[in-house]
Amino acid sequence: MTKSIIDEQRSAQAQLSNEEITRYSRHLIMPEVTIEGQKRLKAARVLCIGAGGLGSPAALYLAAAGVGTIGLVDFDNVDLSNLQRQILHGTKDVGRKKLESARDRLHDANPNIDLELHDCRFTSANAQDLVARYDIVVDGSDNFPTRYLSNDVCVWARKPNVYGSVFRFDGQSTVFAPHLGGPCYRCMFPEPPPAGTVPNCAEAGVLGVLPGIIGMIQTTETIKLILGLGESLIGRLLHFDALKMKFREFNLRRDPQCPVCGENPTITSPIDYEEFCDTNTETAVSAALPTISVHELKQKIDAKALMVILDVREPFEYEIARIENSKLIPLDELPERLGELNQDAEIVALCHGGMRSARAVEFLRTNGFARAFNLAGGIDAWANEIDPTMPKY
Fold this sequence. Notes:
The protein has 17 helices and 13 strands. It is an alpha/beta fold and 393 residues long. The protein has 2 domains: 8-280, NAD(P)-binding Rossmann-like Domain (Rossmann fold, 3-Layer(aba) Sandwich), CATH 3.40.50; 289-385, Oxidized Rhodanese, domain 1. Helix 8 links the parallel strand 4 (136-139) and strand 5 (161-167).
């Protein structure tokens, strides 16, 4: 890579104050950067999707590096469980809007930057307008609909999409930019995985430092694109295994049949990404199953009703929090342990939030357990509405 994505005229108009020259002095004395490179950084506009695990280190280091305008898209509030990895936020911020605590932290890191806060979901209705305002998109989302949407909009807008994802001890990053000769996200993943087969961080967990590593890789790639330095990850997927402390690289190829960036694209405007990723179907299936609320379960327990409370979480989750006298059979073990359950008994299945237990109830009813019910909201709803002393995770 030899050419910056920032127009020379724009960077020439950016001026550095004496304070900024001192602040960025370790950049300025690098012959690969100099004042001209720092002006490119100041002229750049970067959109971060999400102010969570990946967005936190990305936004912090973009701000520290002097990227002139940073846009943040997020609609969530800070939760105590975020703080193990989302370093933009602190204990005092619990309950605040993530955008508010992000604003305070980033301006403290560098008061010279401009922050544009977008308090909303990144959706088909607003994505094209948001992306059009920026030079680069850093995708820190944690769900498939947003990833496909950000990819598609960036392809159409001819904007680099700096991708990252994390799962337990593994992370990966690349740069999707068909207009610069590389593939797009759909070239790598033409179809999303079946709904419910890939757990999110709330279900599977993530090593707290891992988003920091991947987020900083995303930031590094973003800065290289702005400065026009080095070899980009365009066309290469970098995978990191924290347990083995190993990086592996995979070559990515552009798919000429890709429906978005291929030779004859068939998708040229936003679609229903929730439907495409089957999330509506999963929610509908869950809602269609027989369900009881945590309050109804509490009444049954108080009345000493005959029933089985079936916990389909993993043993390590069961150790954190559980309902007294519940029976633990992890979802993956349920088919081989059906003999431990009475088909005529009333069974109330639960998990962390209600999705795994919904699959358990669907499986049980298919196999003759006509009195199986799903606990809406799972152990999380129980802790919130019934037992506030119960640990939450």
